[in-house]
Amino acid sequence: MVEIKTDNELAAMREAGRVVGRALQAVREHAAVGMRLTELDEVAATVIAEAGARPAFLHYQPHFAPTPFPAVICASVNDAIVHGIPGRYRLREGDLLSVDCGAYLDGWAGDAAVSFTLGLPGGTLGLPGGRDLALIEAAERALAAGIAAAVPGNRVGDIGAAIAAVATEGGYGMPDDWGGHGVGRQMHEDPSVPNHGRPGRGMPLRPGMVLAIEPMFVEGGDGRYRVASDGWTMRSRSGARAAHAEHTVAVTDAGPRVLTLP
Ligand code: MG
Ligand code: MG
Q1: Domain limits at 14?
Q2: Residue 1 lies in a domain
Q3: What is the DSSP letter of 89?
Q4: Strand blocks (E) in the chain
Q5: pTM to 2 decimal places
Q6: How many folded domains does the chain comprise?
Q7: How far, in Å, from the CA of 214 to the mean position of ligand 2?
Q8: CATH number of the domain to which 202 belongs
Q9: In three state form, how does the secondary structure of 129-152 look?
Q10: What is the CA(126)–ligand 2 centre distance, in A?
Q11: Ligand 2 is a single-atom ion; what residues have CB below 5 A from it?
């Protein structure tokens, strides 16, 4: 069932989303070569705790997971697409890091993700670092396109079609069976918001719907993945690098409203 939120509920969700946006901003500011992923997890945990919020990922165990998630953020490095567990790994020059974060505030969820590179990128397009920047930029552009499609009168398929068009244009792969979702009292609610779709198909978008939109792009066009031995981390089958971008967005009569900005 898809919940329709009132204006007051959307205002409350904006505050939950703001906590997530701030946590991701803090992680990005603190991230540096040599830092352990566990230290970045503590940065996010502190922001969430100081806001009086509760981390949404910690101890979360969805149906596909063999164990409860042990951390506050997902930290996915290089060929990890999503769901990376922040362990003792130290960030290296040129790493591509995707950070996903969720939180509950006053009973409402927010969910967002960013990707960025560590240290000096390759500099120009064509060098490895430059390719990473292009990959990240494409994922962000796909997110923006998906958000722009999240308007009343459109359908869920319009969002996926907008995202997939950016992937196809750039030659990027996407894991078929992973995508966005509704957000509300729970982090993961109906409807499913796939990263592919046909324009004009799927559930109609109505004011008050809140959706997490989250393209995951894999360099080289092959979106197939394998799950690592930790039972969580999704790595590209090809070994190519991946980028993830996500916002929680409200569908409103005034247009899409991004709820997870800082
Ligand atoms: Mg997320
Ligand atoms: Mg999500």
Answers
A1: 7-258
A2: no
A3: P
A4: 54-55, 73-77, 80-82, 96-105, 108-117, 179-182, 189-194, 210-213, 216-218, 225-227, 234-236, 242-244, 247-250, 257-258
A5: 0.96
A6: 1
A7: 6
A8: 3.90.230.10
A9: HHHHHHHHHHHHHHHHHHHHCCCE
A10: 31
A11: 111, 212
Residue 136 lies in a domain: yes
The rounded Å distance from CA 32 to ligand 2 centre is 25
- 82 within some domain: yes
Report yes or no on 98 lying in a domain. Answer: yes
For the chain, the residue count is 262
pLDDT tens for each residue of the chain, 262 residues long: 899 999 999 999 999 999 999 999 999 999 999 999 999 999 999 999 999 999 999 999 999 899 999 999 999 999 999 999 999 999 998 899 999 999 999 999 999 999 999 976 544 455 556 889 999 999 999 999 999 999 999 999 999 999 999 999 999 999 999 999 999 999 999 999 999 999 999 999 999 999 999 999 999 999 999 999 999 999 999 999 999 999 999 999 999 999 999 9
